[in-house]
Amino acid sequence: MKTGRVIRSLSGVYRVDVDGTLYDAKPRGLFRKKQVSPIVGDIVDIDDETHASGYIQHIHQRKNELKRPPVSNIDLLVIVMSAVSPSFSTQLLDRFLVIGHSYGLKPRIVITKKDLASETEIATIEKSLAIYEEIGYETQFVGIEDSAASIFDVWEPGLAVLSGQSGVGKSSLLNKYQPNFNIETNEISSALNRGKHTTRHVELYPRHEGFIADTPGFSALDFDHIDKEALRDNFIEISHYGASCKFRDCYHLNEPKCQVKAMVEEGKIPEFRYQHYVQLLNEISNRKVKY
């Protein structure tokens, strides 16, 4: 019996990395009976019948798990956005951050294509990143000529998952980091200001002290698993100051003696972050109940 990590899943066959040796394994029938399937990132025990294949006997308990795309045991969520093509958006960034926090993940922010942006665009983005750093996020603003190793290898060890809309350069960064990855990339749609989906499955690639996952780009973000109460906790500074509101169930809208609104007025909470919170709160409040 050997223990390794699932690094790819295609057509019911799971590629498992056991200390650098790769096995193509299939799950035992007992998983179907339990309605449980391995996913990329899982730590599994395999019964290796040959030097290259085997059967998955056991799935170790997951410390966390993303539903879409399915990947588990994540140590770091890297939200990748671009300065231009598609344009940088704090609103979209905040939506990704909320998703990350909702799964208990630690997000880092990486902005690409710095060398394609104008001086005005660079100044605007750097000002925004300074705000996120003050909140507590680690950020990187990089150009296409920057060394990919200087981007990836400063991250903490473990499994890092790249997330972000299509076309921001996730796959290009990985190809630059390790050219033999040969990950498909595509052009940006000028009509939609976003990339075409080129990554169709989740796969883990080796990196310095761990793995990195390129995930299918998102065209829509799913907030169905987040309720109004949880949303408050997924904005770091709103959660911090909200603990001092007069009412424990304060949603920071029109309630009296709301510490969050007071901090917005004082500039301690960025106005744009508060507005993004209100927009998301309204979306969640107005969504239709699914049965």
From TrEMBL:
Q: What is its EC number?
A: 3.6.1.-
Pfam families in UniProt: RsgA_GTPase, RsgA_N
Q: Which residues bind Zn(2+)?
A: 245, 250, 252, 258
Residues holding GTP = 112-115, 164-172
Which EC class does it fall in? Answer: hydrolase
Q: Which family does it belong to?
A: Belongs to the TRAFAC class YlqF/YawG GTPase family. RsgA subfamily.
What name is this protein filed under?
Answer: Small ribosomal subunit biogenesis GTPase RsgA
Q: Which organism is it from?
A: Staphylococcus ratti
